[in-house]
Amino acid sequence: MNTIFDTNKPIAIGCDHAGYEYKEAIKTWLQEKGFQVKDFGTNSPDSVDYPDFAHPVASSVENEEAAFGILLCGSANGVAITANKHQGIRAGLVWENEVAKLVRQHNNANVVCLPARFIALPLALEIIETFVSTPFEGGRHGRRVEKMACM
């Protein structure tokens, strides 16, 4: 898999109970492709609070300890909102491949948020491949991304 992200850094991944099965499958798939993965949990399908896992993933990306982040929950909305509270994070909620491409090209997203209850696992893997291989276009999009942060 081609990637535009730093392959010397791990990929940060986290989820709540709804995303647990997908997280485990995605983690294995990434490792089989030679990527390092930093798993921030959860580590079972037992009910948990998604911010407890979204914040550490976002912090890891924001602090440049991880190349990028992957977050999963039922709708992906909760983890996306939580991750986007971090100043250096641009988390995109992605449910189809074209959206994965656009959040990278236009928004320079550094965290992809996947709705485990609404997409099949093969699509989730395809989305991740698209996310990691799509470069940011810059230009007019760069100007817009620069205006996102609250100062």
TrEMBL record:
It is an enzyme of class 5 (isomerase). GO terms for molecular function: ribose-5-phosphate isomerase activity. Gene3D superfamilies: Sugar-phosphate isomerase, RpiB/LacA/LacB (3.40.1400.10). InterPro entries: RpiB (IPR004785), RpiB_LacA_LacB (IPR003500), RpiB_LacA_LacB_sf (IPR036569). The keyword Chloroplast does not apply. Pfam families: LacAB_rpiB (PF02502). Keywords: Isomerase. Its EC number is 5.3.1.6. Belongs to the LacAB/RpiB family. This is Ribose 5-phosphate isomerase B. It comes from Danxiaibacter flavus.
